[in-house]
Amino acid sequence: QVQVAESGGGLVQAGGSLRLSCPASGLSFANYPLGWFRQAPGKEREGVSCINWSGSITFYEDSVRGRFTVSRDNAKNTLYLQMNSLKPEDTAMYYCAATRSSCSGPQATNIRYWGQGTQVTVSS
Q: What is the pLDDT of residues 43-65, one digit of tens each?
């Protein structure tokens, strides 16, 4: 049974940091490019970052570039998102995803597996 479960979300003040983790079981993350998405209330889900199989190629949405860092540990079957200098507009549910397609931008496509999400709330 495939399980993808994000963790690390929470409530943080503006300017603070959080590190999201996304471990998986029942599948090998090494076989997939991986992505982070977020969805704020009343808004569509948007791609935040995408990382290729080895981690050598990454893409970021413009508003998070320079503040967020995506990484992966294929040996631990885990995806990460380090979020620094958080802003209230970063408040959203954050999801990780495994995709069938190569990353060509921050919005991963052709998603094969979704996580259940972790809430990030940034207070001003």
A: 999 999 999 999 999 999 999 99
pLDDT digits (tens, 9 = 90+) for 57-99: 999 999 999 999 999 999 999 999 999 999 999 999 999 999 9
| Range 16-43 burial, b when 16+ CB lie within 10 A, else e | eebebbbbbeebebeebbbbbbbeeeee
114 burial class (0-12, 13-18, 19+ CB within 10 angstroms)? middle
Residue 102, amino acid = S
Distance CA 14, CA 9 (A): 14
